[in-house]
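Interim report to the steering committee. The following record documents the input for Type II secretion system protein J (182 residues).
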Amino acid sequence: MNKQRGFTLLELVIALAIFALLGLASWRLFDTTVRAQQGVASHEQSLRRLQRVLGVIERDALHVASSVMVLGPTTLQLVRSNWRNPHDLPRSGRQHVLYRLENRVLWRESRGLDSPTVERQKLLDDVHEFTWRLYDPETGWSATWPVGRGAATTPPQALEVVLSSDRFERIRRVWPLPQGHP
């Protein structure tokens, strides 16, 4: 008698079906992982852009060189100096800085006091909400500045920014202004 050993056709079909199901499950797991990684990378990029914008605004706020600031619904104008050395001597000239919201894009424009050249920097796209307020201890928070007669001689004490953009809703930051503190 000649007995052959091997798999039956039914056993082979079942083995192929199990292998196909394992392959499909592995592919779905891989695809889900790649999509999640892409979503995290996109969110991280948006967060980095937002952090960069807030860092630029903070740097300007911390170097305000004049109590004369002009604040409107979509603009903020200020004069800033650059960082100081350990002996508290200025290192370079002052700049006019203008923040402007145009067509849901936040722009920063700057120029030296003696320079006609304006540098325009696109800070952030797709801005849904952007508001500025300045704090004065006598009048409180104000969305326009200067407030009242002679207010330009009294410096504000703090700057508030509320920002909604892309994935982030109502991010609020408050920075103390150096001119507002004795």
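The chain has one helix and nine strands. The committee is asked to note this result when reviewing the revised timeline.
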